[in-house]
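SEQUENCE, STRUCTURE TOKENS:
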Amino acid sequence: MVMITDPIGDLIIRLKNAGMVGHTEVSLPYSKLKEAVLETLKKNGYIKDFEKHGKGVKKSLKISLFYNTDKTPRISAVKRISKPGRRIYKDVKNIFPVRYGKGIMIISTSKGVMTNNDAVKEKVGGEILFEIW
């Protein structure tokens, strides 16, 4: 059994790497935070769909990747901001667009996991998990 010290980092790297080699699906261990992040990514068109499998400790997430019409993956790059050894928090005044609006920032707030645009609309800050474009 492999111990993962950064589950969100593992999630985004698996998504990026699977897209680079052309896989249509990715499987990874389940957690509520990963499920919330995947729901946000699905809502913003970065993944096609995801579903839970198994019960108890054996739960996993099966993610279907989204590709553009020219067979390029929708996720071109990711950048982990807040890490287990160094958490980065920002208030609403310091949340800005990612890549001139071409990408999104995933933020864990007191109102749940949301994008930078949603956080500004809700007027709430939080922990900046990662940027994706």
Summary: The first strand starts at residue 25 and ends at 29. The chain has one domain: 7-132.
